[in-house]
Every structure is written in C-alpha cells, then in structure tokens.
Amino acid sequence: MVYPASVFITGANRGIGLGLVREFLKVPTVKHVIAGARNPDNAEELNAIGDKRLNIVKIDIESDESIKNAYKQIETIVGESGLNMLLNNAAILPPYFTNGAICRETLMKCVNVNVLGTAIVSQTFLPLLRKASSHGSGDHWGVDRAAIVNISSFWASIEQNEDGSGDLGSLAYRISKSAVNQLGKTMAIDLKGDKIVVAQFCPGWVQTDMGNMGGRTAAITVEESASALVKSMSKLTKEHSGGYFDRHLKVIPY
Amino acid sequence: MVYPASVFITGANRGIGLGLVREFLKVPTVKHVIAGARNPDNAEELNAIGDKRLNIVKIDIESDESIKNAYKQIETIVGESGLNMLLNNAAILPPYFTNGAICRETLMKCVNVNVLGTAIVSQTFLPLLRKASSHGSGDHWGVDRAAIVNISSFWASIEQNEDGSGDLGSLAYRISKSAVNQLGKTMAIDLKGDKIVVAQFCPGWVQTDMGNMGGRTAAITVEESASALVKSMSKLTKEHSGGYFDRHLKVIPY
After folding, report:
1. Contacts of A182 in chain B (CB under 8 A)
2. Is the pTM of this model over 0.90?
3. Rounded CA gap, B69 and A66, in Å?
4. Keyword set for this entry (chains A, B) (predicted)?
5. Which of A150, A253, B109, B230 is the one with CA 20 to 30 A from B237?
6. Residue in A126, A161, A253 nearest the CB of B185
7. Which residue of A has its CA nearest to B97?
8. Where are the domains of chain B?
9. pLDDT, tens digit, for every residue of A10-25?
10. How far away is chain B from the Cα of A63, in angstroms, using its nearest Cα?
11. What is the ipTM of this complex?
C-alpha cells in the first residue's frame, strides 16, 4: 500500500472528514495529518485525538483569506517536503427542490462551499503539491507523490440520476457535485505536467449527519467508508486521474 | 414538424439566441417569439426585425426581481394559453485557468449567470409552462405542449473533456455547463408529472463572439446551428427528457 507522508483534509471535524483523519493516523508511515475545521475550538472529537502527528488548522473554505492563512500554517508544518495530498472533503447539503421555494442564496451558498471552495483551495495549495511532486522521480504517480482527492457523491452522477430532487431536496447538492466532477477532470488534465493525480470519490451512503438526513439510517459506518476510501486512494495512479469512483475504486459514470 | 405556439428565449440580443429568434419566426404556426435581453434599447438587431409576433422583454437573469418582472410581461403576452417553451440560452464565458489567477468572483459570476440564472428562470416560469401543458392531452409530450430547453455546450461533457482549461480558460464555463446538465436532468425527473420535457443541447462550434474567441473562426454559422437546433427541438418527446444532445439530437455522454 502507498500512503502520503502528509495529508490535509478539509471539513475534518466530523463525519467522513473525521473518519479519514482517524484512518490515516492508523498508518505508521503517515507523518502529518492536517485536519481543517471552521471552528477548531469546537472540534471536540479532533481535539481529543492524542496523536502528535495530528495538526488542527482553522479553515473556512468560503473565505480566500482563511484559505491563505491555512496555507501558511501548513507550509510551516510540511516544510521542504511539500504536501503530498489535499483531500477536499468539506461540503454542505442544503435542501432545494425544483418544485419548492425559489432561493438563489441557497443555491449560491451550496455552490460556493462545495465547488468554488474546492477550486480555490486546490489552486491555493498547488505550490505545496508541486513541491511534493518535485521530490518524486520518473513516471511514478500516486498519493505518496502528489494528489488532489475530491469527495464527490453518488448524487453527482448525471447519468445515474433517477430521483431528481428526491425526498431530501438534492437539487443544489447534485449540481454542485457534478460541477466538482468537472472541476476535478479539468484540473487533472491541467496538472498532468506536474504529475499530480486528481480523483473524485463517492464515499457511499454513510452514517453521518448528512447521510442520516430525513430520519433514515445510512447503510455503512464512517469507519467502513473511510477505510475503503483510504485503501482505494493508495491505489491511485496516472490512469485514474480525472476519474470518478466509488469507495472501492469502481468507476461511476459521470 | 412540431413547434411551440409561444417561445421565450433568454440572451436573445445576439449570437445563438438571436439566431433562434429568427429561426422560430420562419415558422408560420409560431404565434409569440419572446426575446429576452438585458438591455432591449441596445438590442439593435432585435429591434430591426419587423415581425409583429416578436416581443422584446427586458431580463437580467442575475436578478430575481428582473426575472419576476419579465414573467409578468410574458404572462400578459401569452395569456390563458400559457408558455409552451422556455429556452434558456443566456450565458457567459469568462476565462479561467487552473494554472492562472485565483479569483472566486469570476467563478461565482459564471455560475450565477449560467447555472443559478437558468435554475431561477426555470422555476419562476413553471406556472406558465404548466398552464400550457394543461391544455395538451393524453401522453403527448413535446415543445408544442411544454418544454424547457437549456443551451449547454460540448464543454459540459465531463466524459469527453480532453483539454482541461484549454487555450481559452474554459474551467469556469465547463463546471457551469456540467452543472446545467445536472440541473436539467434533475428538473426533468421532477417535472414528469407535469409532462414538461427538459432537454440540454450543444449548439456546436458557432460563429458568435463566444465561438470566435481567441482569434479563431468557428466551424458553423449561427443560422446552421439554429436551424438544426429548432429541427431537433421539434422532435423532442418524453424519452428525450433529461437528455444532453448535439444539435442533430445525437446523445452526448455527460
């Protein structure tokens, strides 16, 4: 298995983000797990983790200034090694229905966090990812060299959309995650010269606040999802770049 | 061929929008062609068209208020017949590159016009589309009953994205148009009960200000594109709803 020496995870105070933090900390060769949270002081579960390899960094991906501040801190943490892996996980799911209230602000907020936040964080962290990639050699690509991984969703699939806005009002979330898939595909092509893998994953239907919305209990635990995701990430190489996968690295149609 | 008695086209003051206005006016059974423009006073070419079936309506799809005002005017024009066809055409292409300047505002503007504007216009006009659909009978679906057609782009295809941001900086545009495809697919499912077709079209590489960007001359004329589009729209039925097509109604992979 191939792991990053350093990984930065946004939205890491709960849900899948927190699960991924725990999962990476299980790997002895991982040196730095950097957990991004909007309010580190309130991130109780993160703060309770007693592992010196964990750094908690304040980041609000709606704010370019906050992203820049996080960059400076992470640059100090990883130093000349650069950052091997950026894991864009932070996202929101505000209910929105075709046949419901008309509210541009809700659509805007969802797109701003899920898509624009992911784009700006990715662009901002390119110098640190390039630095890490420059230490790799030859034609090797992978999360141990340099990677951007975006947490997408099954709901991003336009091809497999069968229930529209559905019971939960997924319209805003769906369009944002389809946009994330196109963002990742576009960046993957643009970053070929840097040997940076860019991949999109659906974590599955996971028992988080988001996954359990509408009073249902999701199919799998956070640990099951995070464990499968990290295993699949360890297999990422050049041919996966731009792709959209389930947690077992099975291709999902866009 | 099957045509709408009334059609409302946004961004109709130039380019493909203007071409679609001219094309629909060629059809004798079309009663109302409503051309949306941000600045009707400056829409010289529209104003020069001497056809009583043409109405020019002010609409800025970034403004909910402007959309509501346009709705009121169009309601008066189409009356109890309702609106058969909403053609979301207005869009912008601001250059944006993965490896270029970081600018959330540019991404936001592009998404606001191309995606959120399309969503809000579509939602706002649902009562008029439903009214038109209610006059149809049985299982007939089509632009002569009720339809939302979104002008998408070849660049919306995530599957077929091979050049990333490319020479023109298509990142913002690409993500916005992929989001439009998901918006259309989601709305198509949500509007099944209303028998409203929702379809997305790539107009081709057309000789417009947008198409000729970067000093190149696009492959086809506005008239060639608009003529093929209107022909394909006339063939739309239930099974096309949610789909993404080229101007000849050939499926494009999402």
Report:
1. 156, 158, 161, 174-175, 178-179
2. yes
3. 39
4. NADP, Oxidoreductase
5. A253
6. A161
7. A190
8. 6-245
9. 999 999 999 999 999 9
10. 9
11. 0.97
